[in-house]
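Ligand-bound model needed. magnesium ion.
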Amino acid sequence: MVSNIKSKYAANELNLNKAKFKHNIIALAIWSTALLTVSLPLMMLWTIGVEGFPQLSLQFLLTEPTHAGRSGGILPMLISTLWILCICLVTVVPIGLGCALYLSECVTADSTIGRIVGLSLDVLSGVPSIVFGLFGYAVFAIQLGLGFSILSGGLSLACMVLPLFIRTTEQALRACPTAYRRAAEALDLSLFAFVARILLPSAASNIAIAFIISTGRALAETAVLIFTAGYVTRIPSHWSDSGRALSVHIYDLSMNVPGGQPNAAATAVVLMLLIIVINLVAHRLSKRWQLLE
Amino acid sequence: MYDEISKISALESDQTEKLHNKQAILPPSTKPSAERITAPPVSLTNVSVRYNDLIAIEQANLDVPAGQITALVGPSGCGKSSLLSTINRMTDTIPGCHVSGEIWVGDKNILHTSTDLSYLRRQVGMVFQQPNPFPLSIEENIRFPLKEHGIRDKATVNHMIESVLTQVGLWPEVNSRLKQNALRLSGGQQQRLCIARCLALKPSVILFDEPCSALDPLASATVEELIKQLTPTYTVLMVTHNLAQARRIADHIAVCWMQSGCGCIIESGDTESIFERPIHPITRAFCQGDKG
Ligand SMILES: Nc1ncnc2c1ncn2[C@@H]1O[C@H](COP(=O)(O)OP(=O)(O)OP(=O)(O)O)[C@@H](O)[C@H]1O
Ligand SMILES: [Mg+2]
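Prediction:
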């Protein structure tokens, strides 16, 4: 009797150990995937940083390139990039916000119009960026006569970023608790008042994140800009001037200019730092925004 | 009893006085606000609520007497919330929801297409199960809806904020931190703020959908007491799961039950008769459960 119980107990113990072992293996697997995800960007930074950091200096940021970019700095590219980014975002934010509001507030997800808009957004976001480049070239550069210019580049980029911004913003708006909507409805608040005072502020931090994601996407884009904003390494003095974006510069230095690798890496470091800084600023802003209300 | 009557008559004379004052001072075009001073009765006749193919409420009849508390009780899912939200037509915006029958608020059938929805929402206020103050400051929670309804004068608004917060007993607790975010209040305080926000628009009928079920017993008792104080100025219809609570504060009870797949009002009457002399066997079992 007693031995019977003992053996049962032992068997239980064994099972328990097995379960523990299994548990440990699974935990290890999950940990290592997490570690991999964390180490990936670090490895990337390391590879680029080792080559790029030695080139970095204030001088690098504030001078124009020489020898097709092998030496000298990236001032014109920085300025062009910011110009293009500004035009892109100035176009994307109002249109995108309006469309996202329409999708989240004015139509139900299963209505015909809602489905049509949703479908076209999904198609748009699946289009390869090179196609947006060709489209921008054909429409903005040629048909509208804007030529290779900051404006063409910014607008083409806007077309590409728009679906991403709309979708992420729509999600941000939909995340607003239904309790607020119900309260607003019961109090007979106008849609405008609800959107302006409750919906947008409560979704602000997530919209900021949508903005960041879009900015990152726009900053990183190369293919669209090669065809529309052009290659010229001068400082643009007007939005109708051609200008070379940072990402195009990186591409050009590493593909077309023998010996351009170190400066390409340095430019890449600048680009990544820029993205990190934008992230931090937006994060701060969204936090501040939440506290204000 | 006598106290009650004197209270009512005092209030009535107060109201007639206000009415006279208003008519003396204001031009005739502002009469609607004078009309709203006395709470109207609400009466539902053969009301059915349907969500696409699902019939949530079938042929409900219910009388909510003016200036009294009526509690709607019944098991979960029998359509109490659905029925409640037909009265301020919140059901309009639920996709696939259809309401038929007649709902009389005062002398108007509010299901009629000519109903001024904006007027109705001001006349019939609603408080929800989960406290849902806006993510604004405490005072802004009240000021913002007032502003939206065209009441912008600073002194009037501030006076209104103080008066409704006093009415719900929040004023002593929050008057030093009106600018603080309302979401930092406790659950019970948030619920009372929601009631204050509702009162600020001067409704005459107030719908409560399980106003205490997300609160702890103490906060729940406070809100309960507050609802009791709302009569006879307001007509109150309250959904509750808590039979003891219904018995404590309601003048009338309506019992909602699932019958052959759809919700029905199986019995209604004043509280005492529903608890002491229920006619319907289900009501008897339901209310006996409360006693036992
Ligand atoms: N928006 C909706 N769409 C479809 N069906 C709904 C919707 N809201 C409620 N229902 C259905 O209507 C019926 C009644 O729901 P209701 O919320 O009115 O019940 P209730 O009595 O308030 O329940 P509880 O006590 O749990 O709050 C349920 O079967 C529910 O599934
Ligand atoms: Mg309910």
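The beta strands of chain A are 65-66, 71-72.
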